């Protein structure tokens, strides 16, 4: 059975469901004039921008997590193969899968983060404190992407690999600060 195709299909369905279900607004038939405890008083369009921005932001976090899975999988494959020889094929195929699609998922994460920033800027109309923190994380992600692109051409350069990992780790840390500040 081809687990890669199944995994990509499930990932696609999850991502599609996540994006499409993020901003559905529901109201009861005769309650249009009543305000509820979570009613913020925003215009519908403003609320839509904010909801789309938040959904894309969480999609960014999911994509960063998926791109980052290559690190613990590759680090633990030798241990897992040694201690669980019956799962050798699974761990090797997971390592190959995430190695093959790491670059693609990373580009998607960078694109989603830029989209998140633009949509949130359009919603708020200004770049506030948490927006500046997010912008710093996106800039570091872009730098890590450039280093990663050079690393893709020269896979044996240990200093490039260390720089790529270090810069993206700093970007993730700043991204977490952005999430908690929001």
From TrEMBL:
<keyword id="KW-0472">Membrane</keyword>
<feature type="transmembrane region" description="Helical">
    <location>
        <begin position="52"/>
        <end position="73"/>
    </location>
</feature>
<feature type="transmembrane region" description="Helical">
    <location>
        <begin position="164"/>
        <end position="181"/>
    </location>
</feature>
<feature type="signal peptide">
    <location>
        <begin position="1"/>
        <end position="28"/>
    </location>
</feature>
<feature type="transmembrane region" description="Helical">
    <location>
        <begin position="131"/>
        <end position="152"/>
    </location>
</feature>
<feature type="transmembrane region" description="Helical">
    <location>
        <begin position="97"/>
        <end position="119"/>
    </location>
</feature>
<keyword id="KW-1133">Transmembrane helix</keyword>
<keyword id="KW-0812">Transmembrane</keyword>
<protein>
    <submittedName>
        <fullName>Uncharacterized protein</fullName>
    </submittedName>
</protein>
<keyword id="KW-0732">Signal</keyword>
